[in-house]
Amino acid sequence: MTRVLGIETSCDETAAAVVDDGRVVRSSVVASQADLHARFGGVVPEVASRAHVELIDDVIEEALVEAGVALHELDAVAAVHGPGLAGALLVGVSAAKAIALATGRPYVGVHHHEAHVYAALLEEPGLEPPFVTLVVSGGHTLLIAMDDHGAYRVLGQTVDDAAGEAFDKVARFLGLGYPGGPAIDRVAIEGDPKAIPFPRPMLDDGYDFSFSGLKTAVVHYVRKHPEVATADVAASFQAAVVDVLAEKLQAAARDNGMRTVVLGGGVAANSALRNRMLEAAAVGDLEVVLPSRALCTDNAAMVAAVAAFRLAADGPTPLDAGVAPNLRLAERPSA
Ligand code: KG4
Ligand code: ZN
Asked: What is the position in ligand 1's atom list of the atom closest to the CA of 163?
């Protein structure tokens, strides 16, 4: 059995979790800083780092107590070492290394997006690659063929804004506050997704995504039609994003001969996207794995999960490895 303490501090959530064998969650604690950043309309890096420093000890302590696990009962300590905000990443990585040193246990640095993929293995403990996975978050939109554990082929990504970034920017423009994804999700329930025919950028154009033009289209439309109902704008914008994400995900599965598709990242918590994928699963020869909403948005259970697999395959991460704010999948940060 491999019992891992996972730590996540790459953006504005301070999180710690204990997971057994990369599949069984014993505890998962997430302290969101969203309220701290809301008045600025987005994440302020310096504010995030300071808040992580203030919260990290208590969050780790709570994760251990909730799991009923003492430090000496851990087999490894993991933290996200990239990508993310440098000062924020450093807090989690330093905490993980300190515990690793004090306990003599291995330290494992993990990739944030790889962790988002492994959230699905916590939801469905029998899940094994190969599958196609869509990681949609505030910073990234990645369509990946996962052939095996640790073996990724990036099929497509955004050429401009990430999907979550588009949700956040449109929400800010509509005066719906931060974070924008959940706000648009809520408001869109009252609106008509067919009210406004927003563009579906790059729908038939390979596996890459583009959301910046869609955001501009929303701004132009609302300026031209100031009387339009916000709920209709939110629902129509959301429908356009969901169309593009769902179509490309299904095309990637078809083209790569894979029957299973897996979603991850904050935008995978979106109700319209989840419904759309469940409908696709109901009518087609497709198995769709949707982690619970709490496992889609940033958390540390996914970090501990992927760490168990990385430790078994690659061994520990050296303690002199730093953080890498722009880390690419399957890369390692240098010292
Ligand atoms: O994965 P995540 O928690 O953090 C990053 O790694 O970025 O994703 C955060 C992003 C934000 O842009 C947020 O607005 C979006 O996920 N998000 C949503 C929903 N919940 C969170 N977007 C659409 N619908 C949601 N329900
Ligand atoms: Zn994330």
From this structure: 12
